[in-house]
C-alpha cells in the first residue's frame, strides 16, 4: 500500500506513525482513515512490533479531526470499521500505543489520543472536543472515554462547551501523562523504551486485563482475568520462565515475545 497521508518508521520493536497532512493541520479525510487503519492492522499482527507511537507532522497540529472541508463538499463523515484513524474502535488491540501530541488535538484528533494508552504532549498542545460548536457530537469515543478518564463534571465542562484545554491543564486533569518544552517525540520514545524493557506478553496481558476489567467488579475481574487470551498466552510462554530465571541469575532478561 502506497502511503500518502501517513509515514511509518520502525525502530526495532517500536513503530512510529506520523499523520502527514500538515497543510490541513493533519485532519483526516476518508483516504487517510483507510490508510491509518491498514497501518494499525499491520502493527497489530506483526509479532516483531511491541509498541506504537502516533504523532502529527509539523509543529502546529497533532490532528485537527475530521476534514470538515470534505464533509462540506458532500464527502460525509466516513470512518473505517476500526474507528477514527483506524484506532478509536480497535478494542482488541493489546499492544500499547502512545500519543505524542505535538500541537492541536481537536475533535477526532483528541479522540485518537484518548484511545491511546499514554499521552505525552508538548506545552503548546491544545485539546478540545468542539463538535457541539459545529452541530455535531464526539462520536469516536470522546463521549465515553473523556468522562472515564477525568470524571463526569470535568468532562461535561469540556464536552458541553467545546472549550480548549492546554497541555498543562490536561496533565492536571489526568489525561496527559507528561508535558515537555522539548521534543515530544523524544519523550514518547523514552516512555516506549521503558515499556520495551518489560516482557511484551506481560504488557499485553496487563493492558487487556485492565481494559476488560473496567465494567466488572474487582472480584469478578480477578476471577475472569485467568481466562483472558493475553493472560493465558503470557502464563504459557517461554518469557514467563525467562523472567524469573533472569532475576535469579541477576541478568537482563532476553524476551522472545513467545
Automatic annotation (TrEMBL):
KW 4Fe-4S (keyword) present: no
The protein's matches in PROSITE patterns, at most eight in alphabetical order, are given as:
ENOYL_COA_HYDRATASE
Question: From the UniProt record, which GO molecular function terms apply?
Answer: lyase activity
Record EC number: 4.2.1.149
Which UniProt keyword terms apply here?
Lyase
Give the signal peptide as a residue range, or say none if absent: none
Does the keyword field hold Transcription regulation? no
* Gene Ontology annotations of biological process type: fatty acid beta-oxidation
Matching Gene3D superfamilies, A to Z?
2-enoyl-CoA Hydratase, Chain A, domain 1, Lyase 2-enoyl-coa Hydratase, Chain A, domain 2
Q: Which family does the similarity line name?
A: Belongs to the enoyl-CoA hydratase/isomerase family.
Q: Which PANTHER family match?
A: ENOYL-COA HYDRATASE, MITOCHONDRIAL, ENOYL-COA HYDRATASE-RELATED
| Protein name (database record) | Crotonobetainyl-CoA hydratase
Amino acid at each position: 500500500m502506497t502511503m500518502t497521508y501517513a509515514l511509518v518508521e520502525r525502530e526495532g520493536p517500536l513503530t512510529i506513525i506520523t499523520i502527514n497532512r500538515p497543510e490541513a493541520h493533519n485532519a483526516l479525510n476518508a483516504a487517510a482513515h483507510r490508510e491509518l487503519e491498514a497501518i494499525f492492522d499491520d502493527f497489530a499482527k506483526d509479532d516483531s512490533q511491541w509498541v506504537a507511537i502516533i504523532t502529527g507532522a509539523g509543529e502546529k497540529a497533532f490532528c485537527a479531526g475530521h476534514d470538515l472541508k470534505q464533509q462540506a463538499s458532500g464527502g460525509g463523515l466516513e470512518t473505517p470499521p476500526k474507528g477514527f484513524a483506524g484506532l478509536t474502535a480497535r478494542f482488541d488491540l493489546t499492544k500499547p500505543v502512545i500519543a505524542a501530541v505535538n500541537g492541536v488535538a481537536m475533535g477526532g484528533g483528541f479522540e485518537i489520543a484518548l484511545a491511546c494508552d499514554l499521552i505525552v504532549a508538548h506545552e503548546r498542545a491544545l485539546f478540545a472536543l468542539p463538535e457541539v460548536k459545529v452541530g455535531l457530537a464526539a462520536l469516536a469515543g470522546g463521549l465515553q472515554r473523556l468522562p472515564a478518564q477525568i470524571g463526569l463534571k470535568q468532562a461535561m465542562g469540556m464536552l458541553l462547551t467545546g472549550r480548549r484545554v492546554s497541555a498543562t491543564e490536561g496533565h492536571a486533569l489526568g489525561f496527559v501523562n507528561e508535558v515537555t518544552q522539548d521534543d515530544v517525540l523524544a519523550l514518547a520514545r523514552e516512555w516506549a523504551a521503558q515499556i520495551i524493557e518489560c516482557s511484551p506478553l506481560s504488557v499485553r496481558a496487563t493492558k487487556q486485563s485492565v481494559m476488560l476489567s473496567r465494567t466488572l467488579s474487582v472480584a469478578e475481574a480477578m476471577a475472569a482475568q485467568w481466562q483472558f487470551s493475553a493472560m493465558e498466552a503470557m502464563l504459557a510462554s517461554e518469557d514467563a520462565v525467562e523472567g524469573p530465571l533472569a532475576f535469579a541469575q541477576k541478568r537482563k532478561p532476553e524476551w522472545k515475545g513467545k
